[in-house]
Amino acid sequence: MSEPVKSVLLVGVGGQGTIMASDILSAVMIRAGFDVKKSEVHGMAQRGGCVSSHVRFGQKVYSPIVGKGDVSVLVSFEKLETLRYLEYLKADGKIIINNEEIYPPSVNLGEADYPDDAIDFIKKHFKDIKVVNATDIALRSGDKRMANTVILGVLSSYLDIEEEIWEDVLRESFPPKILEGNMNAFREGRGA
Amino acid sequence: MKELMSGNEAIARGAYEHGITFAAAYPGTPSTEILEAFSKYEGVYAEWAPNEKVALEVGIGAALGGARALVVMKQVGVNVAADPLFTLSYTGTEAGLVIVSADDPSLHSSQNEQDNRNYARAAKIPMLEPADSGEAKEFIKIAFRISEEFDTPVFLRTTTRVAHSKSIVHPEGPEIPEEKRGIRYNPSKYVMVPAMARQRRVVVQERMEKLAKFAETFPENRMEIHDTKRGIITAGMPYNYAKDVFPEFSYLKLGMVHPLPAGLIREFASKVEKVYVVEELDPFIEEQIRAMGIDVIGKDVLPYTGEFNPGIVKTAITGNEPAAVALPELSLPQRPPNLCPGCPHRGLFYVLGRLKNVFVTGDIGCYTLAFMKPLEGMGSTICMGAGVGMAHGMDKVVPGEEKVVGVIGDSTFIHSGITPLLNMAYNGSNSVIVICDNRTTAMTGMQENPATGLTLQGRETTSVDFVTLAKAIGIENVRVVDPFDIKETRSVIKEELSTEGPSLVVSRAPCALLAVKQKTPGKIPLKVNPDKCTGCRVCLGLGCPPISWRRFEDMDVEIEKKTKKQEGIAFIDSSLCNGCSLCQQLCTAGAIEEVTENE
Question: What is the CATH number of the domain that holds B431?
């Protein structure tokens, strides 16, 4: 029996670079020799709503998405979104969370409360959880928009792929002006 | 060479590789990227048509003129194109003609969940359905071959998950097709008056019978025999879901979903003990198999609605719930999509949502989001053009003191809004139509349209003038407003509501994203001066993403209360603010100020 197909689910809020991160992850896995499928939904979801992207890789991948209880690694760019997609995670799945809160309109309007105990709640149900202050690290690398690259760095330390492949793909993914910052952000994440 | 491509990019690639040089479409999720990608290939012609009916007619003309033609639309677009579609089936084509129908199970970006396989059956047109990008690239070529071999239009059906998932494809070089362009007269085939159409109807019947035979040996109708206890008949993306969870089962994977290969299905059913039909939406394959007298399990266990995933298929067939961690029910705040900061629709719908005794009939576009809190500026959405037609119908029946405003986008107005506006002039309406003219087809990603002055391939062209158009069709009251001026917008709409006869208001300001794309110099972002904010919350009524509410109790700094009842202040995240000034216009305390340079 060959290695089972791995499923990474990346979730965040429109504008956080969730799709970009999943593009990079997919490119890395293709270069590492895997069959890869990737899926997200475009359209209405681009307008500040939730964004989720499935990346699956292995010897032979059929479905580009998985159902509840089947995700190996949940990568979340925002705390509330982690809770929304938690049921997709396997019992022994890993979670990487950017320690960032982005209020949805109902919270901004004072009509709903943002959950204040998200991390404690997750820890109660899952063992393997890593909380990263990716936005702070990104700021140190020059721009808070690089938080997604920091998170990719953290993810890279969970997946058994040579660092060189990651760095090659990153070099091809960013324009020269912001490449250095992103490389730093990635390395910071990988070491975090 | 291998490349990760979406199903849409792969269809464009396959068409290019097959030597297709002519394509037409109207943008619509999840189909839009096909024409965008195709239009960038060397030596091709591609155009946005005003709507799907026109796109199909353009394609029919091109194919009749001897060029293979690709026509692309989302699932509801086929409704618009249905009129030429059903007769096109009778005429057949000279060169190949393929129609891509992109269906949307789960309604990710649509107003309904229709299953367009039913169109293939109703219009008697063969339909192929790929399961991933690799198949999408090859199936578009096969579709053109079938079209030419059988002298028929062919459907290629995708779903959102095929259209937008990415998988590996192997790009190849393009073929050069045989040159067949030129005028040919063949009235008995192309002039569909009853006498000739009756004869063509017989040809269609014979063609479907030939296609049904072809389907029996069509290599993409593929049997995989493993475990003979349980077998699955499936097509398209659900094949992947099933293979993922039941690799040991036997499969009959149908690359062609209409017409079905009856013999092959019987053979498969005889080889396995229990047959499941795994298909999203309607029991399209299942009912036809049951009609053949074969007992299958399908919608008895699988859902009729929504898209599937491997877990859903597994649970339906095994009866076991997924092995997910049992989590307590959480009530999480929803995060619906929202209008962008600086969106021109926001000011307009702030005004519309606050008019008393007025019903707003809506349409399809980003502005449909304005039905939600806090704007609540829309009472209905049916389809493109319905905002105009319905406004007139409702206006004819409601009591005189109740008024109706119909709203529609610029691209949508061109798509289906002109004829109902003409109807309002002809049949004497008293309602007001507002065109939310943001100078682009925004929701699908800023495509050009006949009002933008550019074509899909970037050529400068004419730009329709809505004011002149409206006057020409008999609308006398026509006004143009700037939706970033709340006072003006409100007073113009109120005036037109009290004017006799139909009115058109063109609410004109470019989409915030278009302004960025065109590198228009940005306005100065705004901030809240906490010492002036009275906490009245009026600015929050705009539902603008950068504006939020901060309670005093959650703040580290002491801020003086302006009123006894004040509980907090508004806050603007200036890094997200586009400086459109709507909130500044609403703030009676003068608390919203421009960010200074050193901030």
Answer: 3.40.50.970
Helices (H), B165-224: 187-190, 194-217
Closest CA to B223 of B200, B255, B191, B196: B255
CB contact under 8 A, A39 and B548: no
Per-residue model confidence as pLDDT tens digits over B479-530? 999 999 999 999 999 999 999 999 999 999 999 999 888 888 889 999 999 9
Looking at the complex, report in whole angstroms how far the Cα of residue B60 sits from the nearest Cα belonging to chain A.
29
Question: Tens digits of per-residue pLDDT, B387-408?
Answer: 999 999 999 999 999 999 999 9
First to last CA, chain B: 50
Greater confidence (B410 vs B178) lies with B410
**A91: helix, coil or strand?**
strand
Give the Å distances, CA to CA, from B188 to A175, B68, B192, B193.
59, 21, 8, 9
- d(Cα A8, Cα A55) in Å, to the nearest integer? 5
Q: What is the DSSP letter of B157?
A: E
CA B584 to chain centre: 35
Q: Is B339 a member of any domain?
A: no
Domain that holds residue B279: 221-318
Residue A110: list chain B partners with CB under 8 A: 537, 540, 549, 551, 568
Q: Report the residue from B108, B132, B335 with minimal CB separation from A104.
A: B335
| ipTM (interface predicted TM) | 0.94
* Contact: B165, A64; criterion CB under 8 Å: yes
| A160 belongs to a structural domain | yes
How many other C-beta atoms are found inside a 10 Å radius of the C-beta of residue B112?
11
Q: Are residues A43 and B311, on separate chains, in Cβ contact within 8 Å?
A: no
Bridge partners of residue B494, in order along the sequence: none
Question: How many domains does chain B contain in total?
Answer: 4
Q: What's the rounded Cα separation, in Å, for the pair B244 and B495? A: 62
In sequence order, what are the residues at sequence separation of 6 or more whose Cβ sits closer than 8 angstroms to the Cβ of residue B254? B129, B220, B221, B233, B234, B235, B260, B261, B285
* Cβ pair B384, B416 in contact under 8 A: yes
Is there a domain that residue A1 lies in? no
Q: Is residue A169 part of a domain?
A: yes
Q: What is the pTM of this model?
A: 0.96
Interchain CB contact of A110 with B (< 8 Å)? yes
